[in-house]
Each structure stands twice: as C-alpha cells, then as structure tokens.
C-alpha cells in the first residue's frame, strides 16, 4: 500500500508540473502535418506558425515544434503569483545570453516568461519580464532560478549548470544510474546536485533535473540488467558488440536512443549476451581507451610469409585500340574514375616497395573490373582466391559488394578504399572510408567535449533541419539563427556575439548562405573571438567566391577522413614518388599508399587481418590517413578514425588544437 501511495504521489507531481506549463515541445512523427498536429492539441494552425515561423516552409520527421497549451489547461496565475519580476527594456547589443548573465537566470526562464522569444529574436527597445525570485514552498516540484553548479561530464571540461530542478522521491530498488537515466543526466551530475547523499534510501527526497523522458517507465534494478554510462567516442555499433545484443534491442531497452547516442548517457544493458553467457565488457577491445592509442605495427612484424594481395580497380583496358596508346591517354583525361584508379595504383606500388624494405614480400595481382559487376564475378570465378590474404578494391559500391559476396565463404577480406556509401553487411567487407554518418558523429563528439563555456550559435538552412535538431540535442544551450532567403545579416550575428569565445556552427550547402555568413563573421572577427565550424565541409566551401582567407581567420574546423600531409615528414616519399612517376603525388596516390601499407603491416604482425584487430586495438596512422576498424552490427567492419581539422590564418591545415581535450 505504501509503494502504491508513492507511485500515486509521483503521478500527481508529474501532472501538476505538466498543467503548470503554458507550452510544450512536440516531436514531429512520420505522416504528421501542421493541420493534424493543431487538431491533436485543439489549437489553430496559426498558433503553431506563431511560435514556429519556419513551419510554413514545411516540417520534417523528428523536428521539434513549440506548442502553446490552451489557456484553459494552464495555471498561469499560480505560476506568476509565486515569482517576482522586474521589467527590463532591451538595449542595443544586449542578447538573451548577456541578460541571463546579468540577472543570473537561465535563457529558458527568460523565454518561459516571455513567450514571444520562442518565435523571434530579442528586439532593441522591447520590454521583457525577468524573474527575480521565488516564494513557493511546494515540496513536490521546485523551480530554481538560481543556477545550480553541477560537475562537468569529464575532468577537462568546465562545469555545466542546471537552472531548473525538481525533487524526486526514491523508490525501493532505485539506483543512481536508474534515476540519472530517467532524468537525462549523468551520475556525476546527479551526485553534484546531492553532495550529501552517499547511499540512496527508499522514501528519500533528492534533487534532479526536469528533463523527464516522456515514455520512460520507472527504473528499478533487475537481475537481468545493469546500467552503463556512455564514454566518449562510443557508438551504437561498439556498444552492440560490447554487450552482445543488436542495436534494435538497445533501442528497445533505452527509448532515449531514438534521439541519438550521447556521451554521458546512462543506458540499461543486459548482464548476459544472446548465448546466455556473462558479459565481461572490461575485456572488450573495441572503441574505448585503447582506441585512442596509436599503434606502430612496423615494430611487431613476425609473420614473414609472402603476402598474397589482389588489387581490383576500373582501368577500362578494353577501350585501348590495338597499338593505340593515344586512345587510352584520351580515356584517362576524360574519365575521372580511371584517373583516380591509376593514381591509387601508383600509391599501392610505392607501399609494396616500402614493405619490401621492411622485409615483407608481396605477390600483387592486378585485375581490371571495368566498373562492371559481371567482370568482378568472372574474375573471381576464373582465378584461385583460396590463398589470397586480402583484396583491395573494387573502387565502387556495387562492384565491392559483389566481390565481398563471392568471397565471403572463403573469408577473404575485401577492403573498399574510397567509397563513403553504406554497404551491405558481409562479414568479410571492410570500409576504409568512415562515411558521412560516422564523420558527422565524430564532429558531434568533438563539439560535446569542447563546446562547454563557449557561446554556441547554430546557423542552418531549411534543408539542414535534421542536423540542426541533432546539434541542438548535443548542445542544448546553443542559440539558433534562421537564415532568410539564404542570407544572415551582420547585425543579427552581432547581437549574438559575446566577449568570450564564440563558436558558430554553419550547416548549409548553399553557396550564397556560406558566402554571406563567412563574410559577415570575418568583419565581426576584428572585435570578437570567433571560430567557424561545420559537420559537413561540402562543395560550397570549395567555391571560388568563398574566401579561404576568411575561413582561415575564422579558424574554420571540420571533420575529415584524411589530413594534409606534412611535407617535411614525407619529403623522402615525395622525392621517390616524383622520381618514379615524374609528378607530385595527389590525395588518391597517398590514400593508395597509406591503405596498402596498413594492410601489409597488419598481415605481417598477425596471422591474418581479423586477428590483427584483436591483437592491436588502437589506431594506425600514416601520411594522410588513419585506420581503426570497428565491427558493424549488420556484419563487416568500418574504419571510424576521423580527423577534426582546422584551417589556420596562414592557410595551413592542422588538427584542431583542442582535439585531445
């Protein structure tokens, strides 16, 4: 009976809290429209447009909308009566951020009591209400206007702040992990709010955040499950492997994963794998502490057998007429894929020679796929692949998948060198290019680890609404600017700037928007500390109308599969390459060299490619690329080693200086 009373009491707390609000967030589901959403909340479409002006241009799945709750369901007078306000007339250059610091209140509270700020920016001359204190004696929900210091997620980041808390009654069998998970916090953050609480006791009241998961049940301990706190750089793939369950199972156990995996998140995970065996995740050798350790495989060579390597690339040899080299020369000049293949091949030859100088012999067989899946099938059917150690290539997705499928039964590794497309899950397929999704997540990880204490501003056009929503999930305190006609004014940007570090995240493929934003930021950088970042360095940044000098002054940072090679370190390589091929190596030649040398060194330091990942869980790095292969839940492996690069003012490119932070 006592347990039932506690549950009912908590339900009343949640109900009271919900009814006290005059707006809520709605996550758009598949098939929903503005009209259907307005009907479900019994409001007019114009009410939605008022607080979400961009919705007139369309809404997307998972986009968050501000929904005003009807006055009949609110208790605004109760809320107002317990809070005192001061009126403030907005002055020039004042921002929500500066006002929150001046009055020691959160930006969320400023918006809460000034609803128009959900739909538009702060305007000079307007008068807003600022909460100055609370007289509420409620024991159920406590709204704190005074910032509560909470410990940082990691030891290197400044502490974050929780500006709104509530009281939680501890239920029997509840744990700190379970409670933290319920309120979207880390255990360290929960302990920071309750420094005097060492051991939880049923019936105890503790302070928690107010971000309750909508569909999250009461969390209690269970003999079949335990709780795990997500570490930096971990992905759903690595967690799936660590705990021996599918990604779908993890998502079912943890509804919050629908919004994406985040560093510091507390997950409910099984104690046993699908075979009923106890999971010893301490012995797991995937992405973790070792993943950030650089491995030098040249010091571990112990397998001196000749390496059987097959190289499959599209050369289009069938287009060479008899005794007609000029014809093929024209083919090279006119077909980009052929040029890439030949450049890559030149790097492979350089890597084979380098391996030979280390005592590694290689038997290299080269086949022309002609970009044709039938050719790949024919090559494999008419040649003996029983003793092949690895296949490098084919270049494109379809031909690579066919090669992996045909060689899967022989367990011959097939390594795609360049494609960033997601491929089918063959257990022998290795994707050396992490792909767009992993690259984006690497930037999310970088931002979550380094953005604390920065004034973060997100600029995203309509086509980038999905990544905008994801960024706001990673950086909940970030402020947003919505471009108008692919333009952002310098004045609007200036209003957002602070005296400290300003990080501007720009998400767009529109050249006009990128150009206007970078130009305006460049002018503002004369008086402000500004860093420009993006999760996707697309072709817009390569346009002639985008000034590299502007990007350099803005310390432009972005994720990349490869970095710019150090001319001093690679001087001997460049000289050897130019002497052999009479031309300076490009990025495809360097990729061919890095990838092939990595494969040969892995084969020379283990029995096969698969064993090398178990023996050497860290990453390897060469002139332009690094490699750290992680198993995919669907099968096969993907390289998840990604650089975060910075364009400097002298137009050199280096790794971002706080990458290790």
Query: What is the CATH topology classification name of the largest domain?
Result: Rossmann fold
Shape: globular
Percent in strands: 15-25%
DSSP summary, beta strand count: 26
Structural class, please? alpha/beta
Please indicate the count of domains: 4
Which CATH-level-2 architecture of the largest domain?
3-Layer(aba) Sandwich
CATH superfamily caption of the largest domain: Response regulator
Measured between the Cα atoms of the first and last residue, the distance is: 51 Å
How many strands, which pairing sense, and closed or not: the largest β-sheet? 7 strands, mixed
Describe the protein.
The protein is 34% helix and 18% strand. With 661 residues, the protein is α/β, with parallel strands linked by helices. It has four domains: 111 residues, Membrane-bound Lytic Murein Transglycosylase D, Chain A (Roll), CATH 3.10.350.10; 141 residues, no CATH class; 174 residues, Rossmann fold (3-Layer(aba) Sandwich); 133 residues, Rossmann fold (3-Layer(aba) Sandwich). The strands form nine sheets. Strands 12-11-13-14-15-24-23 form a seven-stranded mixed β-sheet, with helices on both faces. Strands 17-16-18-19 form a four-stranded parallel β-sheet, with helices on both faces. Helix 13 packs parallel to helix 14. The longest helix has 22 residues. The two termini are 51 Å apart.
Give descriptors for this structure.
661 residues; alpha/beta; Membrane-bound Lytic Murein Transglycosylase D, Chain A; Rossmann fold; 4 domains; 7-stranded mixed sheet; 4-stranded parallel sheet; 22 helices; 34% helix; 18% strand; globular; signal; LysM
